[in-house]
UniProtKB/TrEMBL annotation:
Naturally occurring in which organism (per UniProt): Irregularibacter muris
Species lineage: Bacteria, Bacillati, Bacillota, Clostridia, Eubacteriales
Gene Ontology process terms (BP): phosphoenolpyruvate-dependent sugar phosphotransferase system; regulation of DNA-templated transcription
Boundaries of every PTS EIIB type-2 domain copy: 421-509
Alphabetical UniProt keywords: Activator, Repeat, Transcription, Transcription regulation, Transferase
InterPro entries the record matches: BglG_antiterminators, Mga_HTH, PRD, PRD_sf, PTS_EIIB-like_sf, PTS_EIIB_2, WH-like_DNA-bd_sf
GO molecular function, one term: protein-N(PI)-phosphohistidine-sugar phosphotransferase activity
Keyword Repeat found: yes
Domain PRD: 196-303, 310-418
The protein's name in its UniProt record: PRD domain-containing protein
């Protein structure tokens, strides 16, 4: 039974009397016809328990059972595996897509897929249409002929799609790696070649990368390690099956060998694979691996120093521009943090190589970043867009944006650890008692910086806006918030101060987006414009997707203005916000307004 049917059965159990079908239809948000069909399935399921569904026309339905029958029924419910229809649909489509990508030399047909997944032919047709939408970004096509259905396109694009979609599916079904290896073994005809067993197949590539790490004295960090490993497995399988990268392909761009050590490593990998699988490759395959090696963040000191000594202009300029824009948009002086630059540039160089060679990596924490740091994520995304546009580069993916954001968040956390809370201590007048309180504060809270100790009558002479925390042993006649404590700093005082410090740190962690004069109002343009009219206003390629049918288009201007256009597509309203901005503070404020 599926999840809805189980929910319906649970509703029947808790109901004492008869209920109309429309009652359950309303609860489960489905039609009465669907409820009737579900009741038929439930009757089959509960048959062994002895429970009965009593249907009375004009009155409703009721589940009849004894206490022992109910106990048995509950045990059945606890043992059943719930089927989530949405999850099943997504999983089925990815499995079909992966099979089509793996077996590009073979045809399948709609009836075979319908029988395999026990769904209608119409469902499979819808699946294939959705699959085509996913393949569009890889420039691949689902070919449907009298012979059957298969995917056609360039070898490079097939491999890109395989790696990206395989990594996506592993998140849904972690056990698929083993299943995928089984499929690869059948495809590689391991039994005929007597090359290896399944376990050794995986370990060969792992050992190969382990040897590479030792050879170069590096560490290949996640997710790059898994990305590279997956590419090598896919590449090998495709070659054994006769699918080579075309040397004359228009997609095979000229690659300048910048790092000869990594290029030699690519050749080493190719030779080891050729030897292990008794195959021959062309030069394009070595270049293919080299692209991935220079797109991986390599963790060893020599490489970092070499990059710094070279002072690569593009990488340095890109990193500086990004830090500068994020600093202005988030209202935090990141450009003064040298350590942030040093760490970020080590990520930027391989990232730009990935961008150059169309290599995509998956960030398993992307959803967490969107959930926990929504505003910062979208502001960082716009900053990345502006820098990419400045250097005439294609916009980076959200997975990369999340990795970049992690460096800024990490810097915030570092600052919090070393942040001193500027504290003013106010006592009645006695020097001795004030020093006692100050000493106890410093000993108890290392992150407190007591900037001054004054008597209460001198408070009016102090700029309290420059103070983070005011601690006083007496009542004060001031507008600023302050904390009353005893001279001896008892347990309750310590807890109150600790809570205040955490609150101050959280406030400092949260960027001050909206400065005075940065209020944002949104002007609504004509409703439901035609697609062609919208495209005349701005370049469609420059639209930046935010969320839930919301796009933004940003343009530097002398004036600050936000215009909202509403576009109706497929009975859904799509909102396009055009932001004209004269400074980055206004741009970030406008984004916040849109996100809200």
């Amino acid at each position: 039974m599926n999840k809805r049917q189980i929910d319906l059965l649970k509703e029947l159990i808790i109901e004492d009397g008869y209920q109309a079908i429309r009652h359950f239809s309303h609860i489960l948000n489905v039609s009465g016809k669907t409820i009737s069909k579900d009741l038929d399935e439930i009757e089959k399921f509960i048959h062994s328990s002895g429970c009965k569904i009593d249907r009375k026309q004009g009155i409703g339905v009721k589940l009849n059972y004894t206490s022992s029958q109910l106990e048995y029924l509950n045990s059945l419910l606890n043992s059943i595996k719930v089927s989530d229809s949405d999850h099943d649909l997504e999983q089925r489509r990815i499995e079909i897509l992966l099979n089509l990508l793996i077996y590009t030399n073979q045809y399948t047909n709609i009836q075979k897929l319908s029988d395999k997944y026990m769904v209608s032919r119409t469902s499979i047709v819808n699946d294939l249409n959705e699959i085509q939408h996913q393949l569009d970004k890889y420039h691949l096509k689902v070919s449907k002929t009298l012979k059957g259905t298969k995917i056609i396109g360039s070898e490079i694009n097939i491999r890109k799609a395989l790696v990206s979609i395989l990594q996506e599916y592993v998140e849904i079904n972690p056990k698929y790696i083993t299943k995928y290896q089984d499929m690869r073994h059948k495809e590689l005809r391991i039994g005929e070649m007597k090359v290896m067993l399944k376990e050794r197949s995986i370990s060969f590539f792992e050992n190969l990368l382990n040897e590479l790490e030792k050879k170069l004295k590096i560490v290949i960090y996640e997710p790059y390690y898994m990305n590279l490993l997956t590419h090598l497995i896919i590449m090998t399988g495709r070659i054994i099956n006769g699918n080579y990268i075309n040397e004359n392909s228009a997609l095979s761009e000229t690659v300048i060998i910048e790092d000869h050590e990594l290029y030699n490593s690519a050749i080493y990998i190719i030779k080891e694979i050729e030897k292990q699988f008794d195959i021959q490759t062309n030069k394009e395959e070595s270049i293919y691996i080299y692209k991935y090696l220079i797109s991986v963040r390599l963790g060893y000191e020599g490489h970092a120093k070499e990059d710094n000594n070279k002072s690569n202009f593009v990488h340095a300029s890109f990193t500086n521009s990004l830090i500068n824009i994020v600093s202005q948009m988030l209202g935090i002086s990141y450009h003064l943090k040298i350590s942030l630059y040093d760490r970020l540039i080590l990520h930027i160089k391989p990232m730009l190589n990935r961008l150059k060679y169309h290599i995509h990596i998956k960030n398993p924490l992307l959803k967490d970043f969107l959930l926990e740091f929504e505003e910062q994520f979208y502001i960082t995304k716009i900053a990345c867009y502006l820098v990419c546009r400045k250097f005439d580069m294609k916009m980076i993916k959200d997975d990369e944006v999340a990795y970049i954001l992690s460096y800024f968040i990490s810097e915030n956390e570092r600052n919090l650890e070393t942040m001193k809370i500027k504290t003013l201590v106010v006592c009645h007048s006695g020097y001795g008692t004030s020093q006692l309180l100050t000493t106890r504060l410093k000993n108890t809270f290392p992150n407190i910086d007591v900037v001054n100790v004054i008597p209460s009558y001198s408070v009016s002479n102090i700029d309290l806006n420059a103070i983070d925390l005011i601690i006083s042993t007496v009542n004060l006649d001031i507008e600023n918030p302050y904390l009353m404590t005893s001279v001896f700093l008892n347990h309750i005082d310590k807890e109150n101060i600790k809570n205040c410090i955490e609150l101050i740190q959280n406030n400092k962690k949260t960027p001050h987006f909206c400065k005075e004069g940065q209020l944002v109002s949104i002007e609504t343009a004509e409703m439901h414009k035609d697609v062609e009219e919208i495209q005349k206003l701005f370049d469609k390629k420059e639209l930046i997707y935010l969320k839930e049918q919301i796009y933004v288009y940003v343009k530097s201007d002398l004036k600050d203005l936000v215009k909202r256009y509403t576009l109706m597509q497929d009975k859904l309203e799509t909102y396009i916000f055009v932001i004209y901005y004269s400074n980055y503070q206004y741009l970030s404020s406008a984004l916040r307004k849109i996100i809200e």
